[in-house]
Prior knowledge:
The chain has helices at about 20-30, 45-55, 70-80, 90-95, 100-120, 170-190, 215-225, 245-260, 260-265, 280-290, 315-320, 330-345; strands at about 10-15, 35-40, 60-65, 80-85, 125-130, 145, 150-155, 195-200, 205, 230-235, 240-245, 265-270, 275-280, 295-300. The protein is α/β, with parallel strands linked by helices and about 350 residues long. Helix 2 links the parallel strand 2 (about 35-40) and strand 3 (about 60-65). Helix 3 (about 70-80) packs parallel to helix 5, helix 5 packs parallel to helix 6 (about 170-190) and helix 7 (about 215-225) crosses helix 10.
Amino acid sequence: MTIADGDKPILITGGCGFLGCNLADRLASRGDRVLILDNFARAGIRENAQWLKSRHRDEIAIAIGDVRDPIIVIDAVRGARAVLHLAAQVAVTTSLEDPCDDFETNARGTVNVLEAVRRHNPSAPVIFASTNKVYGRLVDDTQIRRVDRRYVPTHQALARGVTESAPLDFYSPYGCSKGTADQYVHDYARVFGLRTVTMRMSCIYGPRQFGTEDQGWIAHFLLSALRGDRLTIYGDGCQVRDALYVADATAAWIAALDQIDRTHGRVFNLGGGPANSVSLLELIELLARLVGHEISFGFDDWRPGDQPWYVSDVGALSAAIGWRPTTSLPDGLASLQHWLQGRFTGAVMSREVVA
């Protein structure tokens, strides 16, 4: 069931990015009109835009613009029936190089979206792409132990993963800017009555992801394996994340939108949960079996804000919308491999990424 509001489009900021274009494709495929606002600054964006237009033509409109410009945001928000806000600066390393630009995009850009909705379209739901980085490092060395090639928490309370009640502890400029935006989105629901939902996402992966060392690490690992490139692991490789296949992520977002009367004002963790948790070393072994050869890798120092262990407890989201992950990590990796091999044809997985 879709939210009713005539033929108004669903606005997706950053809609030509990895998760955004998958959301746009799924919404358009079920008959929703979609308006994308994207600044086309990142690699792969134009390719994703062309893919969307080839599949949906008039059902998806694409406007080039930046959420840092409040006038552009107002124009996009005014006629929308919902706003899915994904536009962001996404890399910790980039935030360390330019904290001010990181703040302007993630924090100020989000306030621009919220203010546009509050002043010009207050009935429109807003779903925001937050991150598990708002929890900071989460555990210290005394709260984890190493078991084989992964870390596990020593506290039984974390056996099912991290809940939304975990204390926030922003770490790195990226964590601060996304955490600031996270809290603004939640507060605009409490103070101004906007129908907002915050999704604190873990490692989303799948087709249409142009992985780099700084962002989209699962795609980066697999693409490097296919090319035969040497990987660099920051830390000891035993750090653990929970991985969520993109089709499961988009299903959660759309269900949260469709059931906005139940989800508004809430903050949810969104990830693969314990069943889809994996350490970096374990992932390399999975990928080696997938590509059929050993993967070369080395180690470097831990980076600021790196979490030795993070697994989402998605119980709150499951209870609210009846959602759970359905794609196993091996199946999701096989799907990502199929897409990467279909896109990067020719000489040994060309390193060129279409910008």
